[in-house]
Amino acid sequence: MRILILSSEFPPGPGGIGTHAHQLAKYFSVEGHPALVLSPQAYVTDVEREAFNAQQTFDIITFPAKGNSVVKAIFRAKALTKALQDFRPDIVLVSGGRSIWLSAFVIRGKRTPWVVAGHGTEFGATSGFSTRLTRLACKQANAVITVSEHTRSTIASQGITKPRTKVIHNGADARFFQILPQSEINAFRRKVNSEDQFVLLTVGNVTPRKGQEWVIRALPEIVKRHPQVVYWMAGLPSEQQKLELLAASLGVSANIRFWGRVDQQTLLNLYNACDLFVMTSQQLKNGDFEGFGIAVLEAALCGKTSVVTDNSGLAEAVQDGSTGLLVPQGQVEPIAWAVIDLIESPEKRNGLSTTAHTRALRQQTWDHVGAAYLEFFEEVLREA
Asked: pLDDT for 249-301, tens place per residue?
């Protein structure tokens, strides 16, 4: 099976949609299914991009990430048209709003089946020309896969009710994200002066949807009981200045650290060095929401339990009371007391962490996800 993947983002830059596309392309090619990726690769240098691409087992055609939106759309349409002619895929997998409606425009009238991978952001916004185009385009696709039940219910409420729709949760890379030897963890914590601290960690771009603000708002209550607590944030620091001002106003500036965009090895070290993963993503007023939460699974593979908000698809990454704890959105006290509970109950925290790690290994790796996609593609091709 020859598989063409059109994505709105791709590593080595950040983003869950890009991680999803990369891991699937890698799995498909390893399993003997030639894959070609078409995508921008933003937030990285040419050297980083070229080094990353050279290591892959599949080909990547990179789109310009900056510039006039009309020019970018024309470039992508031409690249997709050429890829359909030259690569001759059996099926096309499409991720990201602009990629979805562009595919509908280019593939319309051709016999190549195409499948939408629905994450969340592209369907969450309640207004906007691109959003309306995405909804219309999905109705032309052969099938839709969503990364969570929440995303599926969201698109169904928008009138996207394809006969062939399937939920396949995201996964995490168990070959890379794993529990490091304690000696390596201790060495890293010494290096960053965190030997005697209790470390909370969030991985994700620093934006209102990711909700780092709410952990900071909970810190005064947490630090009052446990002054050794620090909060690490790794990801593009879009809202860093705003959160620094918030932390200063709450008197917890000394208890936060922004790591910015980090490389994969540093990310692995952060997951292993933290004591507790927290992800308090918010469903915004414009409808934007968290489709799933890959970082929660990456933390689990590194042996860490999580405290996450119970809204959107993020709640599906955690089994409440078994692999982590769920807290309500937009409320400070439940976040604070969930964290305090797990600080003061190390046996409970360790038990949740062990269960989270076991479940992630057995059910939530990209191998499981990739196999489910291939099985679904076979069904789509039989019916095309």
From this structure: 999 999 999 999 999 999 999 999 999 999 999 988 777 889 999 999 999 99
What is the average pLDDT score of the chain?
A: 93
> Distance between CA 76 and CA 68 in Å, rounded?
12
Please tell me the class of the 182-363 domain: alpha beta
Residue-level pLDDT at 86: 96
Residue 329 has a CB neighbour count (10 Å cut-off) of: 19
pLDDT in tens, 84-127: 999 999 999 999 877 888 888 898 878 899 999 999 877 766 55
* Amino acid of residue 338: A
User: What's the pLDDT score for residue 125?
Assistant: 61
Residue 313: name the closest of 288, 338, 334, 276 by CA.
288
Domain residue limits, the chain: 3-171+365-383, 182-363
Residue 244 and residue 253 in contact, taking contact as beta carbons nearer than 8 Å: yes
Domain 3-171+365-383 classified CATH 3.40.50.12780?
Answer: no
- Per-residue pLDDT of 338-356, as tens digits, reads 999 999 999 999 999 999 9
Residue 23: what pLDDT?
Answer: 97
Give the chain's count of helices (H) and strands (E): 15, 13
Q: Find tokens 């050429």 and name the residue.
A: 82
How many residues are there in the chain? 384
Amino acid found at 55: Q
Paired strand residues for 167: 146
CB neighbours of residue 333 within 10 Å: 12
Q: Is 48 helix (H, G, I), strand (E, B) or coil?
A: helix
Token representation of residue 99: 């990629």
Angle at 298 between CA 278 and CA 190, to 5 degrees: 70
Q: Cα(145)–Cα(291) distance, rounded to whole angstroms?
A: 12
Residue 199: which residues within 8 A CB-CB, separation 6 or more? 189, 229, 230, 231, 232, 273, 274, 275, 276
The span from the CA of 271 to the CA of 353, in Å, is 12
Instruction: Give the span between the Cα atoms of 37 and 151, in whole angstroms.
Output: 24
The span from the CA of 286 to the CA of 303, in Å, is: 35
The verdict on pTM exceeding 0.90 is yes
